[in-house]
C-alpha cells in the first residue's frame, strides 16, 4: 500500500541523488541565465527541466543515462538559444516577446490591452500593488516579457528612457 518493494524506494533515492547532481552540474556549467524566468520561453524550459527530472525519478523505465542526457540536452539547447538570441535580432524576435505598454500618462491603451489579453482591472490591481492611489499619477504600466507588470509613476519617470524597447511606447515621454 505505501510502497511495492524496498528496491523501489532505494531506486528513487539513488536516482534522485544522481539526477540532482547532474542537473546542478549542467546548470552551473551553462550559467545563471539557464533558469532565469525572463520570458515565456525561459519559463517553458524551466518547466520542461522539472518535468524531465520528475520522469527520471519516478519512471522506472527511464535509465539514469537517458535522463541525464535529456537534462543535458535541455540545458544545452537553452544555453544555445539564449546565446543565439543575444547575437541575432531575428532569432531573438522568434523566441522572445517584447514588453508592451498598457497605460501611458494615466490613459489605458485598450488596443494593446486587448492584444495582450489584459483587463483594465488587472492594470488597476498592478497600480494598487505598487501603492499608487491614482491612475493619473502613473506615467506608464508595462507588461514585461515575464508576464509581470511594471508601474512607473510620474515622479519616477525621468526622461522615460527605460521605455525605449517597449512596444507601443515610441515617442512616449512621460511627464515628470
Defining traits:
176 residues; alpha+beta; CRO Repressor; 4 strands; disordered C terminus
- How much of the sequence is in beta strands? 5-15%
* Class inferred from helices and paired strands: alpha+beta
Please count the helical segments.
Answer: 7
What is the string of helix and strand elements?
HHHHEEHHEEH
Query: Low-confidence runs (pLDDT<50, min 5 residues)?
Result: 171-176
Q: Roughly what is the average pLDDT, rounded to an integer?
A: 85
Overall tally of domains: 2
Protein described:
With 176 residues, the chain is an alpha+beta fold. The protein is 55% helix and 10% strand. It has helices spanning 6-30, 40-58, 64-87, 89-95, 110-116, 120-129, 154-157, and strands at 100-104, 107-108, 138-143, 149-153. A four-stranded antiparallel beta sheet has the order 2-1-3-4. Helix 1 (6-30) runs antiparallel to helix 2. The chain is elongated and about 65 Å long. The relative contact order is 0.11.
